[in-house]
Model the fold of this input.
Amino acid sequence: MLIDRLIASIREKRSPIVVGLDPALESMPPELLEKALASGLAPEEAAAAAIQTFNEGIIDAVADLVPAVKPQVAFYEQYGPAGMNAYRNTCAYARSKGLIVIGDVKRGDIGSTSKAYSKAHLGETNIGGATYRAFEADMITVNPYLGDDCTREFMEDVKNSDKGLFMLVKTSNPTSSQLQNLIAEGRPIFHHVAEQVNHWSEQILGESGYSPIGAVVGATWPQEAEDLRKIMPKTFFLVPGYGAQGATGKDIVSSFNADGLGALVNSSRGIIYAWKKNSDMTWAQAARNAVLAMQDDINGALKDAGKKYWVSE
Amino acid sequence: MLIDRLIASIREKRSPIVVGLDPALESMPPELLEKALASGLAPEEAAAAAIQTFNEGIIDAVADLVPAVKPQVAFYEQYGPAGMNAYRNTCAYARSKGLIVIGDVKRGDIGSTSKAYSKAHLGETNIGGATYRAFEADMITVNPYLGDDCTREFMEDVKNSDKGLFMLVKTSNPTSSQLQNLIAEGRPIFHHVAEQVNHWSEQILGESGYSPIGAVVGATWPQEAEDLRKIMPKTFFLVPGYGAQGATGKDIVSSFNADGLGALVNSSRGIIYAWKKNSDMTWAQAARNAVLAMQDDINGALKDAGKKYWVSE
Done:
């Protein structure tokens, strides 16, 4: 099952790390767009070509170091259909390199619409009797505001296509408490969501004992993560907020179980745009170095906390 | 301002109705896809071509009857980048016919990511100094789970590009109460969201006294709509759930203010797939007839409730 492959890859690469692929032309090495524009492409096609070159360079530089990448679809959507084509090709390229792709799409809608999203990102679409995979990821992020009607529609593809979800529980942003921390029936809303995620997680477990139904838990809320770890013991956490958003290794240990597993820590800008602070190396080398530094930080913090997922020193 | 144009169009066409453009090949007249496939296009390109033909036919049939259309992006996303191109072209075609386009995208993320979504759907993207509009709608739906960090990022484009939002408050689906109706501080979560939407609405008002910051309130919850009308007096409601989801004219009157304004009622499948129940007319005629019937039903219900938005009989 996907979740077992993910855990095997974390152990093999010694790295519970996800590299976020959030392309923004203004932060990318300018020669990539310049070259694409000089070749005569229309602006949006040039943008897509520059993004693809950049992402493939990053993926090549980190593929042996991390189990997964997380393209954030908003950064592709802003470049229109050509950008969505780059999203599709980025997912495909990363999967061809053995990486697990987490499509950060934060979709969620009423039943029949969520079904269409599930087809788009996890399953397949029927076109006149032929099947077509629109934007194939291995796992996607899902918004819980609409309730179980929504989650249910993704479960068929999770089971049939060996895919996974990360439901938003406690997000990393400053105002996430506004709605998520309101107290209902004696506990915050995000605990209610966590209980529901746990319900779904328990219905589908890999040999590892973990579930492909995961939760998004921001690294910026370590105390909340500690509580959530107890509510969802078998649920993998996708942990954003490391690096550019301010969290460090010590902030993320509470997202891990005692076995050193149960979380994937994401960093996007801190890795892919590390070249801006490292003028002595290429952008790909800078990204690789940033992953290595993050790996040291996180594994060191886990070791200090007695949460070792690796077998030998 | 956009909201004033919307209200003028509602009055002129005597119709607070939105036609939802949710293309699913299996529900569309089969000859559209067959013809596109016969022309030698790749399956996903043929799907996009069939959708575009269908949507343009629907738009032509209803453009003089309704102020707005609402493409649901999930149904385009399932056909990949080609589907997203059909979404883009559908938005553009509807706008060229004087219709207000509500992009039903239900996006929402942390600040920097929501900014990218805002560029994608309301504003413009910078590509090497040139500007590009990725998927231009007039208004989009936004998910509130992440809090104000998210909403804030859309406001600049709302103001600068004369656009609007509909924030999800109380959705039409059966399990919407699961999270939305939890009671915090003595009132349901969706009231808290409504109060926040009202806060944003009051910051930007048109000459009509209404705001381009709107709310999604399902037609399937008439009592809840009545309460929400009081919490958000200046907020326009986008009301899904009419028709295929079960609501009728009498269910939607509580979403309107005493002036007969303040709501737009959406029907998707009940209009665009009306041809399936009307073998004696073309699919475009059947859609037009379904809009006329819905117009009678809704205007009749509003008249009975003493909520007339039209000036003379």
Q: What stands out?
A: Chain A touches chain B through 74 residues (CB under 8 Å). The first strand of chain A starts at residue 17 and ends at 21. Chain A has 13 helices and twelve strands.
